[in-house]
Amino acid sequence: MQADEIGLLLRRERGQFLEFLSAYEYKKGGAQQKRAEELAREIARLLVGMANADGGTLLVGVEPDRTVTGIPYPAEEAQVLTHAAQALVQPPLSPSCERMRLGNLLLLKFDVISGPEVYRLASGRSFYRIATETPGLPTEQIHQLKEAKKSFFYERQQVLGASWGDLDEDAVARLGEKIQDPRDAETLLSQAYHLIDNSSQKTSLTMAALLLFAKDPTRWHPRCGIDFVKYEGVERQHGGAFNVIRRIRFEAPLSRLIDEAVGRIREHIRERTILHDLFFRERLEYPTFAWQEALVNAVAHRDYNLSGASVEVWMFDDRLEVRSPGLPPSPVTVDQLRQQKRVHFSRNPLLVRVLADLGYLREMGEGIPRMFQEMDQYGLRPPEFAAEGFFFSVTLRNTPIYDEEILRWLNQFSSSTVNFRQRRLLAYAYSHGKMFSTTDYQRVGEVDRDIAYREIRSMVKLGIVTPLKPKSRSYRIIERL
Q1: Is 248 exposed, middle or buried (0-12, 13-18, 19+ CB in 10 A)?
Q2: CATH architecture group of domain 2-137
Q3: pLDDT one-digit tens code per residue, 229-283
Q4: Which partner for 114 in 55, 204, 225, 228 could form a disulfide, CB atoms 3.0-4.6 Å apart?
Q5: Regarding beta strands 465-467 and 435-437, do their DSSP bridges make them parallel or antiparallel, or are they unpaired?
């Protein structure tokens, strides 16, 4: 049975909710066993990062490439590892720890859930899990994180009057199939996702379980769905000028809601005929990834404590707005999103983990930068973010900022080669005699001189641009196409 569970974990990729940790370090002389105290500190650091973020599983005795090498310590030192989170973390962290065997090799599996506390090592340092990394938390963000974690209670509250019969067992079974976990539905939700508590005679369901899998989630939250409204024109009109031409309300458990909404909203996203490479081609007015990522984020990260409002999708002739109840939770800010910072914080970590395993949230901390890339590849304006009242909105505009000639020329540079600012500058230069200055870069890219200089030098090294003369602050594009 343990071999099967280990096999399931090894088939998954490292990420937001899973990490592998080796008991060995590799130097020029070959593999060397880590000291038990050193490995214990690494265990504590990773568990602190997961507990401060969305929770997760740490499998010790496995290399980053998923090769099983085991834990080669005597019983006394192995005991130090199992108690690392209690002994080295403040306040003490109590993950579940299971000793597992694969043949003659010992492994340790730690499971930790996201808690209302901000945990730190005895040294005072705190960490936070983002995708495959566990960076340290700056001091100023620790207080912000403490404030944000106060919102955790809503999804964790045990709902009086709710019973197992209120859940759609087929929906839970689909989750088990998705992650290839053979455990029965109740065990899966209890042990893997901490969505129910069956420690007493009566099973207690959390609000997260009901939002995700209830047969009728509106019984527990009246506005947990999505409202789609299509308007004629570019502004909302009222009274005699009322301009709503289509309204759809989607109500379903969150495990199905996104698919249902995406399928119907997609029907209203128009195709446009464009001339590309001397051929007429059809292209959607918004990149698929961009608008779907905005919708998924709205469902996953909205403030469900605001029970009087739904996620809203407003479609106008010139733009698509996705509106989510609740402002971005600290330490995430609107300015960070506008600057494409790699940030991640889950207001609803229990929901997020399930939605991630269902395949809706794939790129923790990477979704927003990719939205910028996708919009830029389409020659469209970058996403716009705003906080209005108690709503957070993402706006995607369908008006091109480049003509087809410039866009065709720009698309020779992949997003892995040049960033959004560099592409915008290249488009500007292409329209201005294929020349630009450092001052142009600062103005067009909205950056300071140091960033402008650094990003121009990057394009020089790539052979995209060259100075007009040595030590010049003016440059020209090296002709390619």
Answers
A1: middle
A2: 2-Layer Sandwich (3.30)
A3: 999 999 999 888 899 999 999 999 999 999 999 999 999 998 765 544 444 455 6
A4: 55
A5: unpaired
